Amino acid sequence: MKTKLIYALVSDPSDYYYEQTLISVTSARMWNPDAVIELLVDDRTHQTLTGKRAALYDKVNNVITVDFSKTVNKKQRSRFLKTSIRQHVKGDFLYIDSDTVVCESLEDVDKFQFEIGAVLDGHRLLDLNQDTLNTKKEKVEKIGGQFIDKGSYYNSGVLYVKDTPNTHAFFREWYAVYEAGLQKGIDFDQPALFLCNQNLDLIRPLEGEYNCQIFLGGLPYLGYAKIIHAFNAYRDYTDFFIFNSIHYLEKIKSQDTLTEEDKERIKTAKRQFYGEYSLTFGLGVAYNKSVLFHLFVDNQQLFHWVEIIGKCLLKLYRRFCKRAR
Length: 325
Known about the structure:
Blueprint: E1 4-9, H1 17-31, E2 37-42, H2 43-48, E3 62-66, H3 74-83, H4 85-88, E4 93-96, E5 100-102, E6 116-118, H5 133-143, E7 158-161, H6 165-182, H7 190-200, E8 203-205, E9 212-213, E10 227-229, H8 246-254, H9 260-267, H10 283-288, H11 291-298, H12 300-324
Parallel strand pairs: 1-2, 1-4, 2-3, 6-8, 9-10
Antiparallel strand pairs: 4-7, 5-10, 6-7
Helix pairs in contact: 5-7, 6-7, 11-12
């Protein structure tokens, strides 16, 4: 495999980003034993990669350390690393977020002819009927760009990037737009990516199996997924995928190394769903995005009283309003 695999890590012992990266890099090495894997870290993260947190060194070919001012927080360092990868890495590469598991060989990326490739966010084009559209539009316009409906809003979790003058220019602009967005309170890299692609039109769509977003429309791609993207959501209600479970990540954190059982789970990632879950679609999806659902997750005691009031209101509605019609 000629294309490099690239990860960016900003972490300290209080979070689970290191453990997620260890799992993802291990999976990438399992399925792509000959690949060159490089890891970008900031200087403060680099200082923590000792003892139990040094296992990554055995999985990667090269570690690149980037210095930051002490005033730049952890989230911003992560975004700045991602948007500046092209500056630090030589050759064609496939960037992979840490909250992923590689499930198959990635050698076919060597055949890609386009300069930058990515999977659509949520596996769909932007649509006025999409619930999250207004949120994305608000962020893009707050940065200072124009939002075009039915456009291609890409997920930045997996990016194929050739080593060309155009891609270097793209990443320089992405970095600059993200930095400008910070001044306006937008601490996200995808709105900046959307604006850069509006201007430079360099990204081409990858098939969904390269970034199977299992919480956002990725189910049709799960069976032949090359990379499962689970997202950083440490909540009990997302525990049906083991590699996104805070309990499992806590277990990995406590160990000196990955066990044989862990490695087998990583190798069979497409089967690592467990617990109580069900398919959600249509109105169910809308409910999962509602305030009531998040109230249930964050404060079940308060939700209990809201639900009692809601049941009373629903009875009154069914008794009087329906009769009136």
